[in-house]
Specification:
The chain has about 600 residues and is an alpha/beta fold. It is about 45% helix and about 15% strand. The longest helix has 30 residues, at about 430-455. It is elongated and about 95 Å long.
Length: about 600
Amino acid sequence: MIDSTEEITEPSSIHITDEDQRRAGDIFLDYSVFTKPVYETPKKPQPKQTGIRNIMITSALPYVNNVPHLGNMIGSTLSASVFALYCDLAGYNVLSICGTDEYGTATEAKAVSENMTPRQICDKFHKLHCDIYKWFQIEFDYFGRTTTDQHTEIVQELFKRLWDKGFITEDSVEQLYCEKCPKFLADRFVEGVCPLCKYDDARGDQCDKCGRLMNAVELIEPRCKICCQRPVVRSSRHLFLDLPKIESKLSTFVEQRINDPSCIWTSNACTISNSWLRDGLKPRCITRDLHWGVPVPLEAYKDKVFYVWFDAPIGYISITANYTKHWKEWWQPSDDNEIELFQFMAKDNVPFHAIVFPSCLLAADAGYTLVKHLLSTEYMNYENTKFSKSRGIGVFGDDAMKSGVISDIWRFYLLYRRPESQDSAFIWDDFMLVNNSELLNNLGNFVNRSLSFVSRFFNSIIPSITKLEPVDTEFLARINKLFATYMRNMELCHLRDAIRNVLTIARLGNGYFQANQPWVAVKKPETKQRSGVVISVAANVACLLGAMIYPYMPTIGKQIWIEQCDLPESQMSFVQIIKNEFTVKRLLPDGHRIGKSCKQT
């Protein structure tokens, strides 16, 4: 497990040496153009000898049965998308995959409530999810779905392999049965009181309040979600994943990942995984008495389907297979291809990604790619309560789309308050305060005043840097330290800390601008050249901020880089800075004409 307690680095606390200043000045004065690599589409892994990291990113598949709220997005889809954009800037060969999770009781229950078929529900809400993510600029190389022939084929093939290897057992299970409907009440077709926390609306598979996973018969005062009648208990034959049989191998895998300094397992991922293993694994039922799901390919169980949490993680594989014919190079790679799998989710999904899914892949023993970096957040709440889809509490994706506030603003605030180490909350007053103080008065102020100064006093031409003074090299050395911290935080997926590094650079830039007063120096012939040096340094840092903020705010980042600085998107890259050991070079050379969008003020 990689651990870092990087805090926001305030400019005054950064230790700078003479060598830091010398190196900062020398490399900044150097200018060379770099164009980032373009990988073929559909993407395939690069061989080890190329020296390029092959990174595969997944986001927990969102349930298709409802509109995603802000709390859903920050823990999974938004965070995964931000990291994918960063990986592109860093020059990695990255494949990002997501899609809607469409099978299971949630979909059947939603179809019943809306008087539609499960397929109609899936089609309706898949499009809605796509529209919301497109508006939020949450993009993946491929956003698929689990209701495909490819998914059924891969799930059934993996199951057959587990069956043949003896990792599937059979047993009878006591289940709740509604005599009025009449049907077995799997998972979300039954609600009741949680036996642990006494929450009144716990589902038949999990309590939303305390997170406990359970069997529906454990519920106190259960009720059928369709007719509200109290069900009876009946027996039904089911299939189980024999977790105890694979427990030793899984335990070794989890321990290796947690203790490997090159792996990132968040604190709650470690705690939850160790808790499950400490308590001892039990056989887990992987079938349900439903119609909407992947059919079990055994004659004796032809009337059953797979439990959604057995088939859903396999969706990462099937969605990749729907995207590219090279999918096995990502999921069953040869020794020549090293794949780093990053998986983003909220903490309630950890058991399935750290225990159940790896157990299936380990038991299959077919060379599958296993999670290397497990990135789970805490929860984001809404004001002083929890987001709730069923009760309509919180801000949902379609609400944000209709708000009149651009998606970059929503993205910025959610990532600024990302619940990385403890629960956070979306608070309207804070939303307005943070956006005004940090985006408008800090970041926006520095970028706009620097570039508009070039437009107003230097005819939109970046002035020549004749000589850097100690105050300039000290400023650049501090920028280098902050940029290195930003890169470390991004590599660790500490997205909240990294965005604060961006804002600290902007504050430092405002201080540099204010202290050197270029608006005074530019009015005197003897100091105008000095004004040009200051504003050239400031404009270059503003351009750098455009690239640094791009993963968080794609539209704003591109506006700064392409429209205001007039640079091609193909040159937006951190590769050369990384090669220079995180020492920033000039991005805007002497004589470069910046964009017309920089208004003269």
